[in-house]
Every structure is written in C-alpha cells, then in structure tokens.
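queue> holo job accepted (3S4)
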Amino acid sequence: MEKYYVEVKAYPTIGILLLGGVSDNKKRLPRHTTAGIAYTGLDDDIYVKTDLYLSNQKSGIINGKEVSPDSPRSPFVVIDKYRHEILMRHPEYSEVSFVSENKNVISGSSDAGAAAIGECIQSIFEYNINIFNFENDLQQISESAGRSMFGGFTINHANGKESLTDEILGPEDFEDFVIVACKFSEDRKPSDTIHSNIINHEKYAERVKNSELRAKELEKMADSGDIKGIFEAGEKDTQEYHSMLREVGVSIITDEMQRLIEKVEELKAEFWNAYIVTGGTNVFVAVERKNMEKMKNAAMEFKCTPVYLKVAGKPDVISKN
Ligand code: 3S4
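queue> job finished
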C-alpha cells in the first residue's frame, strides 16, 4: 500500500419504498421518492471495505478485479472530479487510486461501494465538502447511494431532476428487530433492467405521484416509533413493485422465492413479520428479535440460505494516515 491512505467501511442497503426508474445512465437520479435502510450482520460482518490511496500510478480494484476508469458507474467518475484538489494537498503524488472489497454483501453493494468512496474523499477534505452536490456525485456510481451515506432509515426525495436524502431514524431505533435474509442461488438481474422497464408500465406515473405521499406516511410512522408499520409499508410496496415489474416482463421472484413468501404469509398467524424483495434473488423477512430463530427454521425448509441482519449506521473510517 502506498503511503497516504484512508480506509472506510460502509454498509449495503435494502429498499423500503423501492426505487425503479432513473433519470439517465449518467446522473442516475431517481425518478421518484424512495426510502431504505442500511444493513449489516449481527456481528457487523457485512460491509464494503474501501481503501483510497495516493500513488503515482492510477489503479482501481473492485473485488480483486481492475476496473477501467472509463467504465460506466466507475468510482473514478467521482474520484476524478475531486482528484485535483486532493492532489493539491499532497503534491508528492500524481494519482488517486482505490481498492474495494465486498464482505458477505447480499445485495445493495453498489450503494455501499459509492458511500465508502464518498467517505474516503470526505475524510481527506475533512468534511469541507458540499454534501448536497456530493450525494448527486455519488449517485453516478449508485442511484441509492444516500441510503448508505447516512445509514439507518432514510428517505430520498427525488423527481428525476433533483434528489436529496433525509436521515429519518438511526440503527438504535431498530434494535428490537432482526431481518432474516433468505438468499437464493439464482443470479440476479442487473438493476438497469428494472430501471429501464418499470417506467413503461401504465401505472408508473401514478407510482411516481404516490411516492411523496407514501414517504410522508413513513415519516409519520418514524415519528411515532411505528417500526412494524415501516416494514409493513415495505411489504406492500414489494407487492406493487414486483407485480408491475412482472407485467413489463421482468420477473425477479422465482417460484421457490414465491413458495417461501407464501410460507411467510402463513406464519403471520403465529408471529408478526413483513417481507421485502428488492432487485436481487433474496427475500428479506423482518421479525421481532425474539422470533428470529423461528423464522430461520422456517426458511431452512426452502432452497435458500438464511442470514440474520440488523440495521446499520453511517460509514466508519477505520484508519487514515
Ligand atoms: C433495484 O438502487 P437492489 C433496487 O429500492 C435498488 O432497493 C436500486 O434494489 C431497489 O438492486 C431498491 O439494490 O437490490
């Protein structure tokens, strides 16, 4: 590792009010208001770890593979914007490079990757950066980067032209809940397949219109500490989102995932739960902490791997020199 570096951990995310449709392939501003949570494992063992370092040769490595600076959504899109100012502070170097690695991430890794790069840059600038523009910069790497930048439960107010994330609740507000992530082995569809197709649904304009109102309802639930209500809103939105996606030819929920969902619905008679499916082949089931084992045991009857999750916070700077 070169001499000057900063190392950051950031946490991946799950949508609650799910994101479908972005402004364009470059800016990637969400076309409507969305909400989400950052998550990690119960032992904080799920995250993206990124090292940003100054060097004399430009290099960017994600999960052991060199990424081209010209590839779309490359972290260099943001690094290059701040490169000159970073190097002015350290004139002995000519390049800014990075190494990023996903640790046990189930989905939402690009949010965490973007937020980790962002935290590295902010830590070099020592917070002397315009946070509003900066979120939009990071959205070029991942449209829902704000969820991971702020951690906890966030609402991103957006309309395809402007986008701004509000921090609503911290991880401590979710302490009584565990999310049992049921991971299925099928490959996921790229999120751009979702974004480019859902906008063609005849009810998409209505979904866009309703999103701000739904976000207001989520804010009220957060104010009154109604965490179950937040997860239940996620389940309701999952149903709308995936039925719209199916109707435009994008099927994410496999038959086996559907069978598990039916079991989860049956289990509501025994204990409270709410499920969410984002863009990947995973069913995230929120339960009260006391019922996590019951849910895990039920999931074991299906072809999936259950993993316990909790709501995570903002990115952490692990070390810096
Ligand atoms: C498609 O940024 P995933 C979606 O709101 C995120 O979580 C897009 O899920 C939906 O690709 C969402 O991160 O799984």
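queue> The mean pLDDT is 95.
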